[in-house]
Structures are given as structure tokens and as C-alpha cells.
Design a protein that fits this description.
single chain; 499 residues; mainly alpha; Serine Threonine Protein Phosphatase 5, Tetratricopeptide repeat; two-stranded antiparallel sheet; two-stranded antiparallel ribbon; 17 helices; 40% helix; globular
Length: 499
């Protein structure tokens, strides 16, 4: 899809955000049938238009025998393995032979710019609707939050990207936009999140829509990234990251789950540890990544397709402390499961598959997942606070409390008596071990310019780091390539260096 195609129409999705509104959203008239001057004229248009912005979050999660775009950043860490021979996009990333023709990158680019286009429409049109001012402000807050999320992901993946902030029409110069600097993109992201922060959003939202806590959490992550590479803004932005993460912690609205099983428990959607999630609903909008996280044709699942598209390398699992609960069977990983025809029979899987993403009910009976995908969870906020605050002040009791909360759940000894440098790497290690396979680790690698050596359990420079199975990272792997399809359609785009 070209930029012209993406922005010449208002693109809306009929996907629901909450259980109560699923039927309504799936039966109402498709707003994309209306032309621009017919839509965004009523309050209900504003709500459905903002709901449409969320739908692009799901696109990279679509998975099957070709893999799925969300796998891209996991294979780029060197900590993931694959038994799915036809998942060429995964294999090229895993073996550091990626090209601009990779379909995963194209999915992110097209889907997230579609989300940005829908956000731009909402931001431009909602102020002109005759509706309750407080509600309009909240809806705009959601739109700004989502636009910030899409741009934050795209700028980290691709570097210099087009910055489009208004609806694009057929006669617009932005049909073939030039690229902006990362600095300009980050400034928009920060401005959008500050606007969302002041929009009156509730501090939590159990329906799955954006909340004030989600805004603050994302802003903390943005500041943490801006403190590191490529902008290298340093101490001031570490301090800002610590402040925003600290505000979420101090609100006392969230807590770590008491058990890792709750990380993949559909009854725990949007509450407790889950701050912001991609929404799914069984039989209506089921999650589709379950097929790719189970072993290839081991006959353990109710799904007809068992893809084996991603699992952990043995070396990464063995990098956990021997006492770490997360590395134990059926905590974060699993190596055995029951046979689909006889649940009393045990099947050895031949690898460390990702149990933290596993929907037990879907896998054993329904083949229709009700599990949400967690985008921001409280464990990440705690570790963001700990890392950022340590860079500002060195070890303090609140910093140690934050990281030790993660370690206590993992049944590991509390950290104490560490220097600033020692605590820095201890926090990084907790991020690697706690947030693995959640589309976070590669982004940490890129902002830190560091990679985790699973053999020595230490961190080393990104460039020159050797994956445990052989390939060596180079400077070009600090970004993913702008898709060749977009380069052909828009001559104003400059290809990513090294591709």
C-alpha cells in the first residue's frame, strides 16, 4: 500500500475494545463508507473514530505459518530459535541477513502509518464536533497517546522516518513525504504524550483504553530512550524518566502479579500488573499468535497448525540463575506438555518454548484465544524507574526496592551493597530476564548499544556481539531497513544505511 492509498481515505476498523461494546461495533455501518465531510459530525463518530486508531496495534500480532511481524524484534536479539522453515522473514533476521524486502518491516510501516493517519483524522476533526467538551478532550488524549506509540515504535525501528501530523488528501505534498530527523520525531512524541497527560484520562481503565497511567508509563520509556542512543540526552532525561515512572509507582494503582501464571491469564486483562494491552476477545477478535509459540507438529495442541515459529535458545534460558523461578518448567518456558489425544501422556518438546505467552484453554480445548497482549506492564515500569534513577543518583533504597520486587517474585536474593555501575548491569539483566519475548529486549539493545552475553552473563558492545549460534552484530543492525516497497513508491525516501 502506498502513502497515497493510506491517506486518501479515512480508514476505520470494526474491532471492539470492550466486551460490552463488541456486538455494537461488529454490527454498525462501516464508517469507511462515508466520505470525509460526512464523518466526524456526531459524538458517536468521535468515539468510533478513536476506537479505529487502536486497531493498527493488532496488525503485527497476526501470526501463522509465515510467522508474524512481532517476531522481528525477537529474532534480532539472538535469543530466539525457529523450526519453521517457510518463515523466511524470521530466518533472515535471526541470521543477520535481513533485507529491505522483509515483510515484517513492511507490516509495521504500513499498519502503524495507517494508525497515525487515523489519529491525525481524529485530532483534526473532533474539535469541530458539537459534543461534551470533557469527553472530547479525553478522546483526543487517547488519539495523541496512540499516535505517540506508533511514532515511538517506528522511529526506533527505522530511524529517519516521515513525520505526518495532519490528514493527507490527494492534493497534499505529504503524499510522498520526506524523512524527518529522529530529534523531530521524538519532540512530537513528547508533545503528544504531554497533551494526553493533561486530557483528563482516568488513572486506570479496565476496558483496555488508554489511561493516565499508560501515558505516564510510555512517557517514562520515551525519556529513558532519549537519554540513551541515538539522541544521548543523558542525565536530564534519565531524571525525567525516573520522575514519570515514579508517578505510576506512587499512584499505588498497580502491583506485580503474585504468580507468573497470571501473565497469561485472560481473567487478568487490563488490571493489576497489566497497564496497557492489545485487546482480544474469543470468538470475536481472538489472538492469533498461539500457533507460532508452540512446537512444530508435536501434537500437543487443539490448534490444527503447530508452527514452531519461535522459542528460546537453550543458551538464553541457561543464562538465568539456577534458583530463578522464571526459568523453571511452566513459568516463563516449558519443555514438556501433554498429548492432544491423551492428556495423561507427556510429550518432550525438544526446546524451551515460551509459556509466558501461552493460553492454556485455547491450546488444550478451544483453539480460540481470549488472551490479550501486554504492551506495558508494571514490571517494566519498576525496572525503568530503577535504571533511570540509578543513573541520576546511584543506589538508593527506593531503587533497590523497585528491582528487588522483581527479584523477590523470581525467588532470588535481594540486591544490596552494589556500586552504581554494578547495579546498572544488575538492572539490565533483570530487564533481559523479566521482559524477554515481549518486544522490548531489542529496543533496549538499540538504546543502550549493548548486548547480553549469555555465556559470561555480562553486557558487551552491540557492534561486534556474537550470537550464541554464530552471527555477529554490525552497525547496520541498529536499525531495520525502510521497506523496499515504500522506497519504490516514494522517491523522497532515503534507504537505510547498510541495506
Amino acid at each position: 500500500m502506498t502513502i497515497k492509498q493510506k491517506y486518501s481515505l479515512i480508514i476505520f476498523s470494526m474491532l471492539s475494545l470492550t466486551l460490552g461494546s463488541c456486538k455494537k461495533f461488529l454490527t454498525e455501518s462501516d464508517p469507511s463508507n462515508f466520505i470525509d465531510d460526512q464523518y466526524y459530525t456526531k459524538p458517536e463518530h468521535a468515539r468510533s473514530g478513536v476506537n479505529a486508531i487502536y486497531s493498527s496495534l493488532r496488525d503485527p500480532m497476526v501470526s501463522g505459518f509465515g510467522g508474524g511481524a512481532w517476531l522481528m524484534t525477537e529474532f534480532a536479539t539472538g535469543q530466539a530459535a525457529n523450526d519453521l522453515g517457510q518463515a523466511i522473514n524470521s530466518i533472515y533476521v535471526k541470521d543477520l541477513r535481513n533485507t529491505a524486502d522483509n515483510g515484517y518491516g513492511l507490516t509495521y510501516w504500513q499498519s502503524y502509518y495507517r494508525g497515525i493517519g487515523n489519529a491525525n483524522q481524529a485530532i483534526a476533526k473532533i474539535p469541530g464536533i458539537n459534543m461534551d467538551a470533557t469527553e472530547a478532550k479525553k478522546l483526543l488524549g487517547e488519539a495523541y497517546f496512540l499516535r505517540a506509540w506508533y511514532y515511538f515504535t517506528l522511529v526506533r525501528l527505522f530511524g529517519n522516518i516521515p513525520l505526518i501530523t495532519e490528514p493527507v488528501k490527494l492534493d497534499s505534498e505529504q503524499l510522498r513525504p520526506k524523512q524527518a530527523t529522529p530529534e523531530a520525531v521524538y519532540q512530537l512524541i513528547v508533545n503528544d504524550l504531554k497533551t494526553a497527560e493533561a486530557s483528563g484520562l482516568p488513572i486506570t481503565d479496565a476496558s483496555g483504553k488508554a489511561s493516565l497511567s499508560a501515558v505516564k508509563s510510555l512517557l517514562a520509556s520515551v525519556y529513558l530512550t532519549m537519554a540513551g542512543y541515538p539522541l544521548q540526552k543523558g542525565a536530564e532525561y534519565y531524571n525525567l524518566a525516573a520522575q514519570k515512572a515514579g508517578e505510576v509507582i506512587d499512584s499505588k494503582q498497580y502491583k506485580l502479579f503474585g504468580t507468573y501464571a497470571d501473565l497469561h491469564n485472560p481473567t487478568k486483562k487490563n488490571i493489576e500488573e497489566n497497564i496497557f494491552m492489545i485487546q482480544y476477545k474469543t470468538q470475536i477478535i481472538p489472538g492469533t499468535w498461539q500457533e507460532v509459540i508452540i512446537p512444530n507438529n508435536k501434537n500437543i495442541s487443539a490448534y490444527s497448525a503447530e508452527a514452531g515459529a519461535i522459542y528460546s535458545t537453550e543458551d538464553f534460558v541457561k543464562s538465568y540463575d539456577a534458583a530463578d523461578l522464571r526459568a523453571k518448567e511452566k513459568q516463563f518456558f516449558f519443555t514438556q506438555f501433554t498429548h492432544q489425544d491423551n492428556r495423561n501422556q507427556t510429550v518432550n518438546l525438544g526446546g524451551y518454548f515460551v509459556y509466558k505467552l501461552f493460553d492454556d484453554v485455547a491450546q488444550t480445548s478451544t483453539a480460540n484465544s481470549d488472551l490479550n497482549w501486554s504492551v506495558i506492564r508494571y514490571a517494566d515500569v519498576l525496572l525503568t524507574y530503577a535504571e533511570a534513577a540509578n543513573e541520576v543518583s546511584g543506589p538508593t533504597t527506593p531503587i533497590l526496592d523497585a528491582v528487588n520486587a522483581i527479584r523477590t517474585r523470581a525467588q532470588l536474593p535481594l540486591l544490596s551493597g552494589l556500586s552504581k555501575d554494578q547495579l546498572r548491569e544488575a538492572i539490565w539483566q533483570e530487564r533481559w530476564h523479566e521482559l524477554c519475548f515481549e518486544n522490548i529486549t531489542w529496543f533496549d539493545m538499540a538504546r543502550l548499544r549493548k548486548a547480553y552475553n549469555v555465556a559470561t552473563k555480562t553486557f558487551e558492545p552491540f557492534v561486534g556481539h556474537r550470537f550464541s549460534y554464530g552471527p555477529v552484530l554490525t552497525e547496520r543492525e541498529l536499525l531495520f531497513p525502510i521497506p523496499s516497497v515504500e522506497l519504490r513508491k516514494n522517491p523522497n525516501l532515503v534507504p537505510t544505511k547498510g541495506y
